[in-house]
Amino acid sequence: MDRMTRLGLLKRIADEDDSRRVLVKLTRRGEQKLRTLSKIHLEELQSASPALTRILSSFRRLQARLGFFIASAPFIWLDLA
Predict the structure, then answer these.
(1) Mean pLDDT by groups of 10 residues along the chain of 81 residues
(2) Fold of the domain built from segment(s) 2-67
(3) Which of 15, 53, 65, 77 is the most exposed place for a label (fewest CB within 10 A)?
């Protein structure tokens, strides 16, 4: 938070009701940076979507074959080749 404050992305505001607390608010520059990063991350997720969908489908097929919920097993080694 210190670094983000120094970069002008956050602003610390003393809480009027409780002097032990400090409120944190995004500055206009911080909001712009967040919008930019959110757009980039959304584009990355959209480009990865087909591969992630294939992997999830593979897990679902394996789950159906094995007859149990995969997430309940602590370690599962898969050969998706």
Answers:
(1) 95 93 96 96 91 87 72 56 50
(2) Arc Repressor Mutant, subunit A (1.10.10)
(3) 77
